[in-house]
Amino acid sequence: MRKLIITFLSTLLMLSSNVFAAPYSVLHAALADIDQQTNDVYLIGYQSVEHVRADAYGASKYIVLDFRADKARLADDEAVAKVEFICRKIISNRPLLKDLSELGYDMVSVAFDETSQFDCL
Fold it and tell me: H-type helices in the chain, by residue range?
């Protein structure tokens, strides 16, 4: 009986890890694709941010995609063009949007430094 319970728990754990890993693998693949297609900036990572709001909507969760430029600072028009390109890639990827939604994300933002970020959705 003990062996059956351990086997059942191991199987359940394996299945649950696959369920939770799948959306992140889609996210990682999509981010790698975006990183390869962007010029002059490169993806260094992403971070989940959750804010608790004191209203009827509860908490909001968003993902910040952190990029860095090859040069010290992007000109404003370059930054806008990069944000538009990255956001267009995200918005046009329906499987990615579905997975982000299932992971609980309400918004996607793009950052090029520690002080500012630009919202996609």
Answer: 2-37, 76-91, 94-102
CA nearest 96: which of 36, 18, 26? 26
Rounded to the nearest 10 degrees, how much is the dihedral formed by the CA atoms of 15, 18, 23, 25?
A: -170
pLDDT of residue 58: 61
Task: Give the integer Cα–Cα distance in Å for 87 and 78.
Answer: 14
Please report the pLDDT score of residue 49 as a whole number.
87
Which pTM was predicted?
0.72
First CA to last CA across the chain, in angstroms? 51
Return the structure tokens found at 3: 């062996």
Per-residue tokens: 110: 């793009």
Tokens read off for 89: 């890639």
* Rounded mean pLDDT, 50-58: 67
Which backbone phi and psi does 48 adopt, to 5 degrees?
Answer: -90, 135
Domains of the chain: 23-119 (3.30.70.1350)
